């Protein structure tokens, strides 16, 4: 194949695929985490979320994740049936409507019900986007696309605090600024959902009309040479049972749990953690942004190093260690400066691990059905990480959150241990395959990446 034509084709795929998925996931992450910013803007007082001895806020946070987990795999199966554009765009429109409704709730129970609906519709996007992205690229090119896709959402998360602060100054309903956060961001979500439904490209193949026949052949040839799974295989019950016995899927799922536990706890509780350092409400919201802007450096840097040198587990372990160090510093150091530095280190570390683990889970498997199963299971464990964050970072433990901090440290230490184990096991299995004693992932030329 002509290298220039290959580069031109994949750049065309990049522009049609990555920006819109990144935009949808950015608004997804904003919509699921802006509850903390709305609370700081007055929602906690209006809906009685701040009553001592209650966990109403934690309930509203974690109830999102129950349907989010349960609907991951069914959603990926639905996307295979109805197509990516309709499925992902339609889901975005629906949760945008739910966000609008959250601007008019009067009780914490109504807020919790809206959060549950939000979980149902948002369950479609992240695993679906991971599945779709990994289907278009050879394994050596997956990681940087995953990280660029995810890094834009990190930037949006940081800037969302500033956006929410500005929206909170607008009095749209009942003269309460926190309602404007939900209403205006809900409108933005619906608009992006419509754009997504019109522009998202489907899986590689005849439906990819934005490519000509030669370009579609290039995509197919590259995937077949890399992992020989261009043609979608059907999902059956026997395959589900076989996939569920693959321990490496569950190992990466546990790693994802550790990463999202840290990232969700910071997303939901960072304003309170900063307030515990002595900052006032307004400054606590504004100081959320710089750590997320900084996180772009390790996230994108780790991705390019990972793909350039085909290094996977060492980078996951390194960033998990950064999360451990940063969490320890912001929790136990004295002085506002060192503690804020710890926040930056922790935000950068855990948000680097998220796309690294997601990419790694897709790199070491074959088959579109297994790809759909894996993305659903791994992302579902991210939802469990969100539940763990809501349960362990309770109102009673604010602003130090001792139990949540200890759980975060333990899970990221487990992530490092799994990386060491993966590296050893995959190296042994690759050697057996090289010696003709094993066939990996059902293909004689397939090798695990370390």
Structure commentary:
The protein has 450 residues and is mostly helical. The protein has one domain: Growth Hormone, Chain: A. Helix 1 packs antiparallel against helix 8 (125-136) and helix 6 (84-102) packs antiparallel against helix 8 (125-136). The chain has helices spanning 3-33, 35-46, 56-62, 65-70, 72-82, 84-102, 108-122, 125-136, 142-167, 177-199, 213-226, 237-244, 247-276, 281-286, 289-309, 313-332, 336-363, 368-392, 402-434. It has 19 helices and no strands. The two termini are 28 Å apart.
Give the gist of this structure.
The chain is an all-alpha fold.
Task: Provide the descriptors you would attach to this structure in a database record.
450 residues, mainly alpha
Question: What is the general shape?
Answer: globular
- Helix-strand topology string: HHHHHHHHHHHHHHHHHHH
Strand content: under 5%
**What is the alpha-carbon Rg in Å?**
22 Å
Determine the CATH topology: Growth Hormone, Chain: A
Which class best fits the helix and strand makeup? mainly alpha
**Helicity level, as a percent range?**
over 70%
Please report the total strand number as a whole number. 0
In the CATH classification, which architecture applies?
Up-down Bundle
How many domains in all?
1
What name goes with the CATH superfamily?
MFS general substrate transporter like domains
Largest sheet: none
Number of helices: 19
Instruction: Report low-confidence residues grouped into runs of 5 or more.
Output: none
CATH class: Mainly Alpha
Terminus-to-terminus distance = 28 Å
Give the averaged pLDDT, no decimals: 90
Organism: Ceraceosorus guamensis
Protein name: MFS general substrate transporter
Keywords: Membrane, Transmembrane, Transmembrane helix, Transport
Transmembrane segments: 56-73, 85-104, 116-136, 148-168, 180-201, 249-270, 282-304, 339-360, 372-393, 405-426
